[in-house]
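in:
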């Protein structure tokens, strides 16, 4: 009798252990010996998804092909951010208890960002959020301490600045500050969509080009420029900025003029060959077809030249600050890639895929 009782107890314990094992959360990936579970991955996915929505709108996931591409990009971004944090935090060290206290103070900010309702729905607790904050903080500390060759960066910076601003070396004498008062009729060859230039089909572009050829013939026949502009010109602010605002952003003192250095390279010399009070033939630019009317030209005033030189100095300084940060990021990426090659990363693909599927189904439901 006792034998059967003990057998029942042992069997019950074994079954309980088995059930606990089955119900316990299983890791989705492992970075060295650190296991990462669904809750943590879900937070990284949510943050990545929200960044994409800020850039492209919350309906981006519903688009058939673009939505699928965006989902894949968000998944890659989340995984990259997670791996970076896990890999770099392992190389960093805490420097004080005060830092840990400040890190705890950031927990309410992260909870507010994600939202209490979302956290409750996805069963994300303070322990998971605390781990994410700690990983991100330590990773940032390690990045801040990465050494880089300041002498090499200085040499690269000078070369990059010269390439970017070399054409301004003799801006005044070279005519870049010549002023022009002009107007134009524009037909687009494509459009900007989510920051990417999309060219229209060739047949459509040919129709646009023929429209402006006809406009040019009518101008030659004596028709009024403004009347034809109202009838045929397209309002394309982004294209116009890429064609007529390519310089330092200075505006001449006299109303209606623009500096030559603001014009795109593809139209600069063509426009300045047009006589005052006249129009030129159809121009084929990277973004549009143009017919340009030139009212007159003018030379810059001493005050405009002084303002240009001041703005040029500011622009060089801004450029160098941006490039220093870019070169710094490059050093960080190089070090991060080196560490990645030394780290053992294991992803359980089936579990990972199921979590991704649940995440997107819930988000789009």
């Amino acid at each position: 009798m006792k034998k059967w009782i003990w057998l029942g107890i042992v069997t019950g314990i074994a079954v309980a252990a088995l059930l606990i094992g089955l119900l316990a959360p299983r890791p989705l990936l492992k970075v060295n010996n650190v296991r990462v579970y669904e809750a943590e991955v879900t937070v990284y996915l949510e943050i990545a998804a929200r960044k994409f929505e800020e850039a492209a709108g919350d309906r981006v996931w519903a688009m058939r092909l673009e939505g699928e591409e965006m989902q894949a990009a968000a998944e890659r971004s989340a995984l990259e951010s997670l791996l970076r944090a896990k890999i770099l935090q392992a190389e960093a060290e805490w420097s004080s208890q005060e830092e840990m206290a400040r890190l705890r103070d950031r927990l309410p900010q992260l909870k507010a960002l994600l939202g209490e309702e979302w956290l409750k729905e996805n069963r994300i607790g303070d322990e998971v959020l605390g781990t994410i904050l700690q990983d991100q903080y330590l990773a940032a500390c390690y990045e801040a301490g990465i050494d880089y060759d300041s002498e090499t960066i200085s040499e690269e910076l000078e070369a990059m600045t010269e390439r970017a601003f070399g054409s301004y070396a003799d801006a005044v004498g070279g005519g870049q500050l010549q002023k022009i008062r002009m107007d134009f009729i524009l037909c687009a060859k494509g459009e900007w969509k989510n920051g990417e230039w999309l060219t229209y089909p060739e047949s459509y572009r040919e129709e646009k080009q023929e429209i402006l050829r006809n406009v040019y013939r009518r101008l030659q026949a004596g028709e009024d420029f403004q009347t034809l502009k109202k009838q045929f010109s397209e309002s394309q602010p982004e294209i116009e900025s890429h064609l007529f605002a390519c310089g330092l952003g200075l505006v001449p003192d006299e109303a209606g003029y623009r500096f030559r250095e603001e014009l795109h390279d593809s139209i600069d010399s063509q426009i300045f060959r047009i006589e005052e009070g006249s129009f030129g033939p159809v121009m084929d630019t990277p973004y549009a077809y143009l017919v340009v009317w030139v009212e007159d030209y003018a030379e810059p005033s001493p005050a405009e030249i002084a303002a240009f030189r001041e703005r040029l100095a500011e622009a060089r300084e801004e450029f160098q600050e941006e490039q220093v940060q870019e070169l710094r990021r490059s050093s960080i990426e190089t070090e991060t890639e080196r560490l990645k090659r030394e780290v053992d990363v294991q992803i359980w693909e089936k579990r990972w895929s199921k979590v991704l599927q649940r995440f997107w189904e819930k988000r789009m439901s």
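note: Confidence is low (pLDDT under 50) at residues 13-23.
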